[in-house]
Amino acid sequence: MTAEPALDQATTTHRRRIAEIWSAALGTQVTGAHHDFFADGGDSFQAVLATATVRREWGVDVPVQLLIDHPVLADFADRVAQLADEQSR
User: Fold this and answer.
1) What is the C-alpha separation between 27 and 83, in angstroms, rounded?
2) What is the pLDDT of residues 12-50, one digit of tens each?
3) CA atoms of 13 and 29, how far apart (whole Å)
4) Burial class, 86, CB count within 10 angstroms (exposed 0-12 / middle 13-18 / buried 19+)
5) What is the rounded distance in angstroms from the CA atom of residue 31 to the CA atom of residue 5?
């Protein structure tokens, strides 16, 4: 059995910052790259709060549907990074 990658091993600042945002929205510590927002008790209201914070943080259009479709931290953060990169071009 392979241990879940810790956030301190995350390769992007997006993952670290989104983990902090999710921790605040969920009221619990997000500790790994494979953390699932909804499996850990996240609901639609918390998803709206989290995506609004991400939107303000990077100035990109991050719809709630993106979090619904990609509830795992690593996947969601990678998509946010891709959106931010596309916007900066």
Assistant:
1) 26
2) 788 999 999 999 999 999 988 899 999 989 999 999 999
3) 17
4) exposed
5) 9
What residues form DSSP beta bridges with 72?
A: 36
Centroid of chain to Cα 58: 12
| Contacts of 64 by beta carbon, 8 Å cutoff, 6+ apart | 44, 47, 48, 51
- List C-alpha distances in Å: 8 to 18, 32, 49, 72: 13, 9, 24, 17
Please check whether residue 84 is in contact with residue 58, taking contact to mean a CB–CB distance below 8 angstroms. Answer: yes
| Residue position matching structure tokens 């996240």 | 42
pTM flag (> 0.90): no
Which residue has 């956030």 as its token pair?
Answer: 7
Judging by beta carbons within 10 Å of its beta carbon (0-12, 13-18, 19+), is residue 6 exposed, middle or buried? Answer: exposed
